[in-house]
Amino acid sequence: MKIHDITASISNNLPPYGGGLRPVITHPARMADGEAYNISKMSFSSHTGTHADTPFHFIADGADCITTPLDHFYGPCKVVTLPVTSHITKADIEGLDIQAGDIILFNTGQSKYMSCGDFKEDFIALTPEAAEYLVSKKIKTIGIDYLSLDPYGAEGFPAHKLLLGSGIAALEGLVLDGVPDGEYILSALPLKYPGGDGSPVRAILIEQ
Asked: Are strands 3-5 and 204-207 parallel, antiparallel or unpaired?
């Protein structure tokens, strides 16, 4: 069995969305300092690094980290490389084999930016028309290899609202470098907490 780790490490090398909060990791106890054990303390946003978006992120009565069915984050998925240089359009994806209930992870070549430390404002994201098409195909989950489904500064966050408003979950900040296109088993479970709009995940792909 081969497992691909598609998670960005939580560290100061993560790009903070919009120049926002970076994760903070401290070490209250360390054996090297004479303590009997090692303990770490972590503080970070619910949308840090490789993370899940639940519908509640943008939909007031949407499902959260507890009520979103776990099969949105675990099960068969498809990895698809999109050789695009600008935002993903309907024309870029309408020729793909996308079926109802699919988990689709788009590799746009942006994974290298998930460990560069600086936020990239001109990242590749979805156009509203592409989001509408994915909604029409009744997919289960959409994944992308940078920090947002919407372009930076997009007014009203249309892709998020269209997809999450249709009960579709999202995975953002995936690290898909070196992962061949194809079908895998995905595991990317969010933390379980009430009112969870999102959560860092440990995302892996298992070759079938």
From this structure: antiparallel
Mean pLDDT of the chain: 97
Q: Which of 51, 57, 72, 160 is catalytic?
A: 57
3-state secondary structure 134-198: HHHCCCCEEEECCCCCCCCCCCCCHHHHHHHCCCCEEEECCCCCCCCCEEEEEECCCCCCCCCCE
Polymer length of the chain: 208
Rounded distance between C-alpha atoms, residue 206 and residue 208, angstroms: 6
Q: Give the 3-state secondary structure of residue 115.
A: helix
Active site residue 57: yes
**Contact by Cβ (8 Å): 105, 81:** no
Evaluate if residue 19 carries a pLDDT over 90. no
